[in-house]
Amino acid sequence: MPLTKRATAILFTLLLAGCAALPSGNTELTGVGYEVRASDLQKVHRMNRMLVSDQVMLDYLNGILARLETALDEPCHCIAVVDTFGGYEAYTLSPHTIVVTAGVMAQAESEDEIAGLLAHELSHVIHDDTTKGHFQQAAITAARVGGIAAGNAYSVVLGDAARETANGLIYHRWNREHEIQADAFAVTLLASAGYSLDGLKMAIRRVAQYSESALASRGDDAPDCITDAGNNRYNVNFTGCAARMTGSRDSVYEPLDSRLEMLQENIWALAPEKRRRRIQNVVPRFASVDYLYGLNRLVSNDEAELRAGLAAVEAQAIPTVLEKNAYVYNQLSLAHMMLNDLETAQRYFLYTLESDYRTTFNYQRLLHYANQQRDPQLVSHMITLMHQDIGLSDEMLPIEYYLAKRHDLKLMEMQAFARCGLALARDMELAQRCSDFGKAADANRNISW
Prior knowledge:
The radius of gyration is 22 Å and the shape is globular. Helix 5 packs across helix 8, helix 8 packs across helix 11 (256-268) and helix 17 (360-373) runs antiparallel to helix 18. The protein has helices spanning 5-16, 38-46, 55-69, 102-107, 111-126, 133-144, 160-170, 176-193, 197-216, 238-246, 256-268, 272-275, 287-294, 303-314, 326-338, 342-353, 360-373, 376-390, 397-406, 410-423, 428-442, and strands spanning 26-28, 35-37, 79-83, 90-94, 97-101, 226-230, 233-236, 446-448. It is built from 21 helices and 8 strands. It folds into 3 domains: 1-23 and 358-449, no CATH class; 31-284, no CATH class; 302-354.
């Protein structure tokens, strides 16, 4: 879909404004007084999610984290943030950043439940699970999923590529030892901090319910990542790439019954007054979370249901703290695209150009537009801007290499070629895709993504 003249004007305004690259250390999350590691922020964007810049909510969440830290020997030097996803998930991007989803904040019935999730993730931070074993693979997956969460414009609203990413990132061959250790650690920490263990039990049940739903969508075989469309054209199937690169089709997760059984054993080792505490604190309501959770109405493969869900979403005003959140406009744009209302889809997409950050999905479309314009300068600017927003994405690397070669951007071509070469040692499939895309550029073939 070609961008309008207004889109081009906004785009060049952004480019000429400089859009300084994110620093390698901490960077202030726009709109709030919290700093997030730049690399962690980029990982979230590569997952086609955004962090929620809601000061009140982040104060509440990090207040829980601070209470838990009082029971630790030393502070974790980490923060808790909320991403825009509507499913019930919590994960640790690095020793510095714990993430819970908007779906958690919307569904949790008590502060104890949220504390249970944070305590579990704190174990991964304290025991450095993000840099060793199978948890390291999950963190690497987070950095590699690229445009997978966005998928192509016709599958994301159905949830295909997003489910593959969830399967691969959140449930990708977890190290059983680390998970058991994290549950045991959470029991002790919650008891010491004065929280009820019933909240942890509820959190584990909800995670199990959501993970079963997510994993039930997987198939036995991963679809092809790249297909020959004939007539000198190739298509990239991001859902297929997700399945192959994250291993989502063979993901595993600890069964609920055995997990609760082991959890109960740890709880019974506590003093009676600690294990008998009851849940007390209700989670406050946040307009940002309610709105983001409501976007789940847009996940449907039934046209009538999707239209009704979209009407319900659009009847609500976008909360102020989400007015510059590209995730919201991406979802609305995709919903209208699914319903073949391309004009409205385009209008929503233009809002993302004025957002604080952009995701891989945005750069998939913007690079496609730049390629269609056959404008080397625009292609170069877009690749540079993409690196600032989402970092160096493996999934976008073959496309970068293809565009740099096709538009004779020598320096970018050399940089992409070097990264492709490094992939030989760790990811033969990625290296092969680089080779295929390079040959396509040499032959001036059209690649569709």
